[in-house]
Amino acid sequence: MFGCGLSFFFTGLVEASLIPYLGIDIGKLSLDEKAEILFVDQFIATAIVLGVVYGITSTFKPFPEDIFCYRPKEPFNLQNGWILWAGIGLLGAVGAIAAIGAVQALLNGESPQRETDALVRLLPLIGSSNVSTACLLGITGVLAPVLEETVFRGFLMVSLTKWFPTPVAVISSAAVFALAHLTPGEFPQLFVLGVALGLSYAQTRNLLTPITIHAFWNSGVILLLSFLQLQGYDIRELLQAP
After folding, report:
1. Is 158 helix (H, G, I), strand (E, B) or coil?
2. Nearest to 214 by CA among 20, 5, 3, 67
3. Are 169 and 205 a contacting pair, CB within 8 Å?
4. How many CB atoms lie within 10 A of CB 108?
5. Per-domain residue ranges for the chain?
């Protein structure tokens, strides 16, 4: 249902490394302050990881045209418009994941297992205030997609295409993407999402395409849960229901 495992892993490392030295008592902070710290953590983690990735690849300059490409021009071009193909990719991912969920429910006789490790950390913040919601949207809708798509599609997938056909690179990077979230019960859904992200990037050779899909996917989950929370639903119970 939600895919920010890699991002939250690096954020946790930053938090564990810096918070003790700053003398901040997490237990005494308000929810808004916790959300703001989480946003800063994610921003630092994103900057560090991207800096490492760019540093590793800088030895191979000049870069090929299809690596680390963020091209905002011609968003609705039929061949490689990033907004157009982001919309197609998002619809395809939603349909495919819904179909997988239905098949799993049919075969297992129940709803597929849900693993919400990343969401558990966010549950107290979801719907708590406008500040918390804005911070969560910044984390899940901007920073996490930029980080994960640059790593998995912009770096890993492009690197794999140097040795393997594009379909193999798409599938391989999608599998690594799904495994990196450390939620085995959600591997099929995350794998399909990764394939949709990889195919959209292969079509446009523009990282803005998978970033947009990823951003809408993550942000949609946060906004939906915030709405349900405001309507009085117990979102923890909903997420943990079988």
Report:
1. helix
2. 3
3. no
4. 11
5. 5-60+82-240
